[in-house]
């Protein structure tokens, strides 16, 4: 059982949304205007087009365990081509301006990364074959974990420093200053910001990032409340996107276009 749910869903789709979607596909073919490359976790509770209310043609979505973008340093030693290939397809070939990394609370991948730490054993080829998930997390989550450890050592009070579009563009981040979230969720937020640095590590994006053609952003979804946070470089923290904060956040993202 289970596959019947999928087939029944397809039958329902045929009778309901299909015809509208086909019209949308035609509109997008004639006027493509993709807005963002969106990296998020493969978690079944994450429904990015629903919680951003985006439609056909709006976003290129890449999903994996833990919304990780491998740093370019891995390029030489292992075959980590999917995420950078997606960045090239989105930002270079389709000239998409915004890259968004969206993490979330109660992330099973981040919970596992928290338990594994930076177990170097797990990143050996032999262990990667036995558990690709553990290998993936230990290799590509280790920078996030190290940053998280820095935070933990300082009692979660001190800010972390990340680089963004260029090595010159650094930003400061206070992680969960109101101490609302679990340690695993704090790791998930650190991880989300670490991916901005990893994205910027790719040489083929350098010119776009340096000249203000490409921008990188972080979102974080709180699964149990449905709240969505935007990392505000001005506020130096994840800010809940709501009726009160929205005008300021809109101002902040609009400034990206002019600077
Ligand atoms: Zn997840």
Label this structure with key terms.
single chain, 259 residues, alpha/beta, Beta-carbonic Anhydrase, Chain A, two-stranded antiparallel ribbon, 45% helix, globular, binds zinc ion
Q: How does this structure look, described?
A:
This protein has a six-stranded mixed beta sheet, with helices on both faces. A two-stranded antiparallel ribbon has the order 4-5. 31% of the residues are buried. Helix content is 45%, strand content 17%. The protein is built from eleven helices and eight strands. It has one domain: Beta-carbonic Anhydrase, Chain A (3-Layer(aba) Sandwich), CATH 3.40.1050.10. With 259 residues, the chain is of the alpha/beta class. The site of zinc ion (ZN) has 7 residues, from helix 5.
